[in-house]
Fold:
Amino acid sequence: MTTQIKSLEEYKEAYQRSVSDPEGFWKEQAETFTWRQPFDKVLEWDFDGPDVKWFLNGKLNITENCLDRHIEERGDQIAILWEPNDPTHAVQQYTYKELLAAVCRCANGLKSKGITKGDRVVFYMPMVPELAIAVLACARIGAVHSVVFAGFSAQALADRVDDAQAKMIICSDYNNRGSKLIPVKKIVDDARAIGCDSVASVIVHQNTSDEIAWTDKDTWWHDLIDGQADSCEPEMMDSEDMLFILYTSGSTGKPKGVVHTCGGYMVYTCYTFRNVFQYQDGDIYWCTADIGWITGHSYIVYGPLLAGATSMMFEGVPTYPDAGRFWEICEKHKVNQFYTAPTAIRALMARGDEWPAKYDLTSLKLLGSVGEPINEEAWHWYNIHIGKEKSPIIDTWWQTETGGIMITPLPGITDAKPTYASYPMPGIQTCLLDSDGNELPEKDVEGLLCIKFPWPSMVRTTYGDHERCKLTYFSTFPGMYFTGDGARRDAEGRIRVIGRVDDVINVSGHRMGTAEVENAINEHPNVVESAVVGYPHDIKGQGIYAYVITQDLETDDAFRKGITDVVVKEIGPIAKPDKIQFVSGLPKTRSGKIMRRILRKIASKDTDNLGDTSTLLNPEVVESVKSGAL
Ligand code: PRX
Structure:
């Protein structure tokens, strides 16, 4: 097993060593895994390419490390514990032995459908154990999984399937989400009607007893696995072979496929899981994320299983059947580590202190937060009402592209200050730059957050478009990975991540590109032009504010609904604008670029100092936009 830091001294030592001898540091961690063939070099890198390789020529299979290697010691320990959407339904659990057998059966089923190493398989499923099983089954046979969050629309699904040229889609019939039943398979059928030509088969997991339409490419999950052997030889993968693609929004219109590879991702997710969550044998660990996002990949599936943990999966939502559901689950399963998003904490905080007060939360040893800055009020509520001021809070900063947690307090080891993600993990060389690329080494300073040195689980490329990877992350400041975030370093060296400095909005911890939402809005036939910005939102962190120029200045609510419907169709409900303001023009520079800075200020009701607007192409428009603000 990778090492587990136990004291501040050990953290400092590990950090020092990881900087002075990164290759020696990571070699030791990597050697704790099962390699079919040992790596012969730890690292080769060039951020200009970018071209980063870890554990060169090492051969492995990540599932052998997640499953097989635990069988002897913990074969009968629960690996996955599943809590259903409906609290009256049965809990499911898989021991390590059972999970290995289930993964192998599914892997053999996938092979029977012609899936082989390198093929892409897209998932569009609710949080049921079969999602984790099939993701691992792909990894078992070397197929590349790409999980699409089941809240995206048919169009968004088709775009991702087409970009990945996926050979198979694995979905469910319906998705139980709170009191709603979401017709997942129908959305897959709709996606196939508008694209997905590369798809040869669709596997449908039966989650309900409701009817669905059937096509000749469809196979039931239960028929796929029926009669399959419960062992399957793991495919030998090169350390740098692709493990998965995960699509994420950026500042341009099209989501990009972030590519992670096998060896480095394995080492880093296990190392961070063990250290950040200080997992001990017998603990019940629960991360509330969806496997459709990176948090679910790294800290529901891979990290915990690599570390031999018991990882809980939850099918439902925090407010169903009532706002006490999270806390009821913590009591029911005696959860020890609880990892969630600030947006969920704020939503539950708004429902009142009486909900957590009803439950026994004494099993909790640690509380985690991820996805967006956690505001001070939510931090204190979490600390007082959930942790009873006894559980350290870890505010973990990281990204889809980083693969694992980068900056975080270590519980009980380094101190935790509200709103600060605090200190970098060993191996993570952070720095702050000014906009000219000069490093700002001093304390108490604000700048652009960059990483100077490679770490094992970093993004390798963006699928099918390496240039885009270079442009997005490695070109702004040559020789550095640029995160897209602004941050502050305090007098003690703690880092506080403030938020995106590019055209990306963080809505409920999910990234939305403003261009992506604008493209969707512009699909409406009566929209001439639109501009989308983020604004502070009490629950979501940031809300989506859309300024829209219309053909005929029709400004009724039906038109607003029409625009919302188009966004839901193009992207999904998560991209719905919270506010739509109709405007006659948008403030633009003389070169025709929209001045988002002004629009952001107006949306945030921060209009005292809009800066110099006299150089605009159309300064008169500012007053009218301001006076019509919602
Ligand atoms: O802006 C940062 C914010 O979320 C972005 C990454 O989003 P995504 O790739 O979807 O991954 C989210 C889950 C890892 C970052 O660029 N972010 C994430 N965690 C924090 C955060 N902002 C402040 N504090 C955090 N703890």
